[in-house]
Amino acid sequence: MKIIDLRSDTVTQPTRAMREAMFKAVVGDDVFGEDPTINALEALAAEKVGKEAALFVPSGTMGNLVSILTHCRRGDEVIMGDQAHIFVSEVAATALAGVQVHIVPNQPDGMLNPEDVEKAIRGEDIHFPPTRLVCLENTHNRCGGCALSPVQMDSVSTPVRERGIAVHLDGARVFNASVSLGVDVKELTRNVDSVMFCLSKGLSAPVGSMVAGSEEFIRQARKNRKMLGGGMRQAGIIAAAGIVALNEMVDRLAEDHANARLLAGGLKEINGLDVDLNTVQSDIVIFSLVTERMMPSDVVTGLAKQGVKVGSIGGRRFRAVTHHGIEEEDIKLALDAFRRVMKGSA
Fold it and tell me: Which CATH number fits domain 252-342: 2.60.40.10, 3.30.70.20, 3.90.1150.10, 3.10.105.10?
């Protein structure tokens, strides 16, 4: 039985080109700045997102934490959405940075209301922590993978930066946003001070993320990465896959988006399930169990018996993510499994 794993785009396998690049990678000691493959990846990543420099990190969580550590001092305050991945799913890593998180509500598409952000910024008062950073997310994971446009991003970033407050973009899937919107990724990163993006999700590399910003920012971020234990040695072996990811795997994200729309449309037609099709803009499909005759665990277990894996994200909500290795035929097979489960015949 073929397994159709829709739990996340982190389950992707490296391509043949990635495996060959990893095998042939020329390596050195990256802590000494002597790994040529990592140096090439960092230069490529910086160019792709329009920043002066970039830094290879083991994970997106470390990338976000390194960025917060670099922007902030202990006792500073960071504004972010109540559904932000940094706030919900990164094990309170902000505590390691010694910062206080000030949450504001995310709108259904993941956008932050600029007025809410403005109200959250602290004034000068001996009792208040200084507002040092605002974090945005694009695409927005828990808000259905919605892609925020450059205009939306600027509506928050511009007034914040004019006040001397930095903006960090959790762009784990920012290339999905770029492809979904049909804009150069630089349009989504030009008005932020730093950006983190993952190589190991839709871009299909086996491991790794990038942090990009100014040369001075990355110089400090490199030291913070080392402090967190992220100073790797001959890591060009894995960086080689990242170069292939950036050069070969971005445009094909459109296939994942088309498959996500196909899946969402099919789920919408199944009794007992509901999907807000307006939020299906990239590779993520958030859907809900609306019948009371079944429990969420019944759906997950029933699908698993038929070789389809989806993730439960709390309450009666689920997440399915399309990715490299999932084809249109797999979506059709998954929908057949959903229909059988919802009819109670699985």
Answer: 3.90.1150.10
What is the rounded distance in angstroms from the CA atom of residue 56 to the CA atom of residue 222?
Answer: 9
How far apart CA 213 and CA 216 sit, in angstroms, is 8
Q: pLDDT tens for residues 38-64?
A: 999 999 999 999 999 999 999 999 999
CATH of 14-248, one of 3.40.50.150, 1.20.140.10, 3.40.1010.20, 3.40.640.10: 3.40.640.10
Confidence of residue 2 (pLDDT cuts 50, 70, 90): confident
Region 118-138 average pLDDT: 97
**Coil, helix or strand at residue 296:** helix
**What are the counts of helices (DSSP H) followed by strands (DSSP E) for the chain?**
14, 13
- Cα separation values, 320 from 5, 54, 89, 186, 269, Å: 9, 31, 17, 28, 16
Residue 17 amino acid letter: A
Identify the H or E element spanning 268: helix 253-268
Q: What's the rounded Cα separation, in Å, for the pair 65 and 96?
A: 8
| Helix axes 215-227 and 60-71, enclosed angle (nearest 10) | 120
